[in-house]
Amino acid sequence: MITKEILQIRSDIENNLRKMLARAVMVTELDVFALPCGCSGITVNVRGLELDDIEVFEEQMLSFFKEVASRLEIPSSFIFARLVPGSSVVAAINWRVLCDRCYPEFAIASGKTPRPDIYIMHFERRGQKGKGKKR
Amino acid sequence: MKKRLYVPHPGHFGGLKELISEAGKDIYSIFMAGSPDYVGTGRSNLSSPQIEDIREQTEYAHKNGVAVEIVLNSSCLGGRQLTPEGFNLIHWYLGQLDSCGVDTIVVADPYLVEIIARDFEMLPVVSVLSFVDSPEKAKFYEDLGAHSIVVDPDVHRHFDVLHAIRDAVDCELKLLVNEGCLYQCPFRYAHFNFFSHAFGPQPRPNVLDDYYYDRCIMLRIKDPKLITVSPWIRPEDIKEYADITDVFKIGGRTHYVNWILNCVSAYTDESYDGNLMDLLDCPKALKDLYYISNRDFDGAIDHWKNCPTICANCGFCRELTDRAVKVYAGGGTENEELVLWSEMVGKTKVSA
Prior knowledge:
heterodimer; A: 135 residues; alpha+beta; 5-stranded antiparallel β-sheet; B: 352 residues; 3-stranded antiparallel β-sheet; 13 helices
């Protein structure tokens, strides 16, 4: 049953982050979303996580986040942290499968923070599946 | 202890009926927000009762022996109140509330305290967002016409200051028992100014993330000692305030009625067996993170009554936190368990 599975995944993400950071972190919500433009994916709202944490443990977090995507059968083509704009507070982690309309917005941008509220952890350019993250 | 309880009301008539039918005998007054179209409040709104709704609810509450308080405690009115148009609109709205039979109005702006005291039957109450934390400030508001003052919770554990305020004024003093905000919160002014506009008259800022809230929650996730140090008052401890006041206010008008009823029961009985987080209004997002047995705080008031709040020299709250705060792990799964916070973060010894 999907609800049981997402409850377990919410808990696993929380526990994994806690072990990594050796402190409490709270995953307040795990959502599956579908947008009218055609984008879809999952969002994990998180409290107690800062951008510094991601930068230090990015490799380990990314590896785990890809595993999460796999468990939910969602392509891990685009994974990013959503920040409270202009701050180091991480509000959410997003796994987003971009639609054809939204993909170019991110494909033409450069750097890991194309907007003040987004920190890109992983972005697969189309035709470059598995070739690594955006630099 | 004989006391008067001010109880939060989300604002809808069904909620009022439930509060009164379940706990009417324990409620001295309910309080709720008015319409944000005129003056905002210090909290988000679950509902915004219009004038006729307030009139109807006030009649119902009075029939049941319960007073009605309307909260218009915006900490920033944007200067609109000082313009002729703004003054006329606010004055008209206050007149409407007065005609509804509302008993008391909570405001944060001294200007509104003076206007209400001068022009209306209903009585002005100085909001917790006026930050009355000294006898001088209390005297100022009393001289302005305040009927009642909700004391700044930051001095709840400074009994010398509380006694000095009590000695300085004759008006009613009210203690907000369960706000749960950070002690000496650095976000307090900015956050409540933001709320005043986000939940006040148009135009309202369209904000996706509340930086102040998210940062506040993060601080308490990183160190739950901030919850221990926060100046809430346990149900068991309100008797310690008997020579200050007999009027206590339970915060939480953005909560559901069953949550409010649980608090009313705890503060009426002056006893609670359960998670302290169930009673605290502000960090409600953390009640699914922390389990803090209220019983583990038995007797802590004896320390706090004489606490100089220089934490670096003490360690009492640090030790209490390390011993009492548990964290939910595996929440929502079959393997849910409670882990001692101090073990989770790998603390091997207690330090200040």
